[in-house]
Design goal:
Elements: E1 8-17, E2 20-30, E3 35-39, H1 46-54, E4 61-66, E5 69-70, H2 76-82, E6 84-87, H3 99-109, H4 127-137, H5 153-165, E7 171-175, H6 183-194, E8 201-205, H7 209-215, E9 218-223, E10 226-231, H8 233-237, H9 240-249
Parallel strand pairs: 3-8, 3-9, 6-7, 7-8
Antiparallel strand pairs: 1-2, 1-4, 4-5, 9-10
Helix pairs in contact: 3-4, 3-5, 4-5, 5-6
Bound molecules: adenosine-5'-triphosphate and magnesium ion.
The site of adenosine-5'-triphosphate has 11 residues, from β2 and α1.
């Protein structure tokens, strides 16, 4: 990626739900290897933005380019094959299957956007190897034979990130990965995310400002579906408009 062509570009992205405009003219540039946090009050349009990027929703207007190619409106499985993967806020695991089986299914069914082999499908490691890699990446290598239902809540959330990672995505979208976690679980998840390979570009919706400050290279603040502010964590924190939004909602 010499020259720094962005991995993901959103141009004037808009999504209406009837009279409501959930995402309103959002433009974004996400660099390859970047870790970007999306923050903003409840209802700001963060999850809707993710749904537009992953193909769960079609935009009402605007464009999305991934590696320079338009993806807006493509079905989710096609977007996934291009190399975009996500974890959900609510759990998305097979509870009776083991950790390894959950990861292996994801690796076998998942996208083909290898981050380590520049998309050369024929040379991708097999599903079992990718499942084991993903388990190690999310600190669950010693729990491979455990049914998912027997993991703690925090470990289940880690496994969900692993499931998203097992498809070897270029871009990983995480919607509130620390939601509902204890401080210890949050710290563990943060350390785990910090340790992910830089080749996986991260877009993360997060309410916990400690997580945002330790993880994000840049922060985008959404408010009523619009980009209110963008910059480093320190820049965004010092923006009086951001202060007002959070003071008003806190
Ligand atoms: N499928 C839908 N149909 C109708 N309205 C929707 C739909 N999805 C989202 N909305 C509305 O769009 C707005 C933005 O919702 P969204 O879930 O994107 O917010 P969010 O920033 O993720 O909020 P939170 O922090 O609570 O998760 C909200 O007013 C929500 O009620
Ligand atoms: Mg949301």
């Amino acid at each position: 990626m010499a020259g720094g062509a962005p991995l993901l570009v959103a141009e004037r992205l808009t999504r209406h739900f009837g009279a409501l405009t959930a995402v309103n003219g959002v433009s974004l540039d996400i660099a390859s290897r970047e870790r970007r946090a999306i923050i903003g009050p409840n209802g700001a349009g963060k999850t809707t933005l993710f749904n537009l990027i992953t193909g769960s929703l079609a935009p009402s207007a605007g464009r999305i380019l991934f590696e320079g190619r338009p993806i807006a409106g493509l079905p989710p499985h096609v977007v996934a094959r291009r190399g975009i993967s996500r974890s959900f806020q609510r759990t998305n695991l097979f509870p009776r299957l083991t950790v390894l089986e959950n990861l292996r299914l994801a690796a076998a069914a998942g996208g083909r956007g290898s981050y380590n082999l520049l998309g050369r499908v024929a040379r991708l490691p097999g599903p079992l190897l990718r499942a084991r890699d993903a388990a190690a990446a999310v600190d669950l290598a010693d729990r491979l034979q455990e049914p998912a239902s027997r993991l703690s809540y925090g470990e289940q959330r880690q496994l969900e990130v692993g499931v998203a990672l097992a498809t070897s995505p270029k871009l990983l979208l995480l919607d509130e990965p620390t939601a509902g976690m204890s401080p210890e679980e949050t710290l563990r998840m943060t350390r785990m995310l910090e340790g992910l390979p830089r080749e996986v570009t991260l877009l993360i919706i997060e309410h916990d400002m400690d997580v945002v400050s330790s993880l994000a290279d840049r922060v985008t603040v959404l408010h009523y579906g619009e980009v209110l502010s963008e910059g480093s964590f320190q820049e965004v924190k010092a923006d009086p408009r951001v202060y007002e939004v959070y003071l008003g909602s806190a």
